[in-house]
Amino acid sequence: MEPLQRVTPPTVDVLALLLESAGPAFGLDIMKRSGRPSGTVYPILERLERQGWITSEWEEHTDTQLRRRRLYTFTPEGAAAARALLAAHPRP
């Protein structure tokens, strides 16, 4: 897992919302809960995944016509690092 090079307020929001989730989170849910646009949230999620903080997988809807959604989950190391980062960068 790589350390984050940039810790911006949107990154802190995304990390906090992922930690608050009871399980895997959807990008759209994170967007709605944070009030941040997709052009902010999805690049952060992609960067967190590239750096080994989170993993993702596609949710398949076999019994409905719904579109696929991507589920994001912390790695064990990513969750620990996110808690430490949020302790150092609390949300307002």
Which structural traits does this protein have?
4 helices, 92 residues, three-stranded antiparallel sheet, 3 strands, alpha+beta, single chain, Arc Repressor Mutant, subunit A
Order of helices and strands: HEHHEEH
Average pLDDT score:
92
CATH superfamily: Winged helix-like DNA-binding domain superfamily/Winged helix DNA-binding domain
The CATH topology, please?
Answer: Arc Repressor Mutant, subunit A
Number of domains: 1
Distance between the termini: 27 Å
Biggest sheet features: 3 strands, antiparallel
Q: Assign the structural class, choosing from mainly alpha, mainly beta, alpha/beta, alpha+beta, or little secondary structure.
A: alpha+beta
Describe the structure.
- The chain is α+β, with helices and mostly antiparallel strands and 92 residues long.
- The chain has one domain: Arc Repressor Mutant, subunit A (Orthogonal Bundle), CATH 1.10.10.
- The protein has a 3-stranded antiparallel sheet with strand order 1-3-2.
- The longest helix is centred in the middle third of the chain and has 13 residues.
- It is built from 4 helices and 3 strands; from the N terminus they run H-E-H-H-E-E-H.
Summarize the structure.
With 92 residues, the chain is of the alpha+beta class.
List the helices and strands and how they pair.
Layout: H1 9-20, E1 25-26, H2 27-34, H3 38-50, E2 54-59, E3 69-74, H4 76-88
Antiparallel strand pairs: 1-3, 2-3
